Request: fold
Amino acid sequence: MKHLPNILTFLRLILAPIFLYMYVQDELVWRSLSLVVFAVAAVTDFFDGYFARAYNVESKSGVFMDPLADKFLTFAGFVCLPVLDPILFPWWAVGVIVARDLIVTILRIVADVRNVSVETRYLAKVKTLVQMIFLYICLLIGVFMQAEIPLSDLVHNLMDTSILYWAMMAVTGITAYTGIEYLIVNRHLFSVSGAENASMSNFSPGSESNPTPESNPTPGSESKSGPASKSTSGSGTEPTSNHHG
Reply:
């Protein structure tokens, strides 16, 4: 069970290019099956995190690969959109979305390696939800465009308007804005001293990572280094910076 989360993460990495290949085949059967692959990959995102927490088997490789696998699947979905219509879904907009999410993902990985806390604003969570809803709708539209059902006429009429274009612009705008906001709020990641200060604030009181010198102990030294002296030392104070989020 301890390897199951990593197995699911790597499965998602494999399914992302398979989904992309199937979706761009421009055939109803392949495109429909690609949505099944996309759904299976999305489900593995839930279960790898669930099993990692349930069995307490979080690993460094999992911390590194899981967000990358998530983004690769999202990137594969957005790359499909200009294939449907490069005017409604411009390539440059997809490039902005991919670049922003890739940069933020790399910074998150760097923060995890440094054991530094990062701050995520509420709007960034809204961005993720908006991206997913928009992406799922557009991928379904691509399937309905090829299906000979009454709903396909409505989809073709929708594609003839600029509604999806402006929706794409809105998604691109909120994605770019939250990326800039993320960089500003977590600018301490770009400086070594700032990252060290942030990581020091994550140490718990009495941590063995900051031991006090105990060479050449003298009789009665325990009474001098007891709780009273610890309260005034740098390693024993309550780290108030932990509350900054």
In short: Residues 152 and 184 are 44 Å apart (CA to CA). The two ends are 32 Å apart (CA to CA). The chain has ten helices and no strands. The first helix runs from residue 4 to 23.
